[in-house]
Amino acid sequence: MHEVNLLAAHIFDHCRNSQLLVDLGAGLGYLSQSLHELNPDFLIVGLEAAEDRVEKARQRCIQHLPPAASSSIAYHQHFIDRDSGGYIESQASELARKNSCQDLEKMSIIGLHACADLSVTAMKLFLELPKVHCLHIMPCCYHKLELQSSCHEASDSHLFVNFPLSSALQRSVETRSQKPILNRPFLRLACQRTKAHWGPEYTEKKHVDHGYKMYMRALAEVLRQPKETVKPIRTAASSSSNPITFSEIKRLYQLESSESGLNVDWIDSHQDAFLQLSEKFPDNQGPRLAEALTCLQASLQNLCENLVLLDRLCFLEGEAVKQSIPVSARYESIFDDKVSSRCHVLIAEKLP
Length: 352
Ligand SMILES: C[S@@+](CC[C@H](N)C(=O)[O-])C[C@H]1O[C@@H](n2cnc3c(N)ncnc32)[C@H](O)[C@@H]1O
Fold this sequence. Notes:
The protein is of the alpha/beta class. The chain has 2 domains: 2-141, Vaccinia Virus protein VP39 (Rossmann fold, 3-Layer(aba) Sandwich), CATH 3.40.50; 167-294, no CATH class. The chain has 12 helices and 10 strands. The protein has helices spanning 2-14, 30-38, 51-64, 69-72, 85-98, 118-128, 167-175, 184-190, 204-223, 246-252, 268-280, 285-322; strands at residues 20-24, 43-48, 73-77, 107-115, 132-140, 228-232, 253-257, 263-264, 327-333, 344-350. Helix 1 packs across helix 2 (30-38), helix 6 runs parallel beside helix 12 and helix 8 crosses helix 12 (285-322). The longest helix has 38 residues, at 285-322. The model has no long low-confidence stretch (mean pLDDT 93). S-adenosylmethionine is lined by residues 25-28, 30-31, 47-50, 53, 79-80, 112-113, 115, 118.
């Protein structure tokens, strides 16, 4: 709600002269519905890849908003990619026509938690579509970026379709003899919680509990076989005062077959591996190490995320120059990063 309300208020302030908003990755429709409450005159096209979410968004609209909202907000199931420009234009024109808006001149692209490649696609569509005059999008889940088809996960430095994007970062990577590691773990670091989450109110006891939880989870992950997955047992509470034993792992985690999804039993070979690891980290060193790594992640997170965000900004500005579109673009941090770790919203406007 924190994110929905703040982003909606921000868009309401900045897009007053937009006749139509296109919400990319609309999910259950929270953002579009909050915007309708702020200004019932907004026409909103919500695009979402998952059919069940589109259906839920339509239902929520009927249940929670006045009847007029069902005419001014339209949700469609559509996977948004680089070629979605024509589809967006046709859905926007259709909604405008239904609402007797004859001359659709100004549109905005918006999105909350536009994960992985979606926020990059949004930048490209912003430049491509002449009627779109501004973009307000909050990116997330950088670690889910798509790999180029020629790459596979095993290589150290992965090549993603949309990272690095800017010629500046691409050049910098190519000219260094020691290549920076811009792989999926790097992108995972970029989308960790920010260090604000670990402020002074995060007491020593909380660190101890968190370290214990992380270590137990890591142990369970290391013990599983390749075609097994580990699921926490929801009803089993973890407590850092419990000893680190194999029976505790069994009490906290269920093994599943990644092929059939059926439960798999913990067996002697898992226990043997557990005993070997326990010798490696005696005297409760495991949870302490896990928490130290968490703190290290928190201190690197900002650096990694900044690189991803600046790379995108440079790309957008570079493409705008190439296409002779005067654009002003910046990030604004509009959320409280203790509540929402992804707090940067990309704001781009085409200048007259
Ligand atoms: C993290 S959720 C955010 C949902 C919503 N914006 C919100 O904040 O409540 C991201 C949504 O984007 C959708 N999505 C991701 N990539 C997409 C794409 N390329 N085309 C359409 N939808 C996409 C996902 O299905 C998911 O519902």
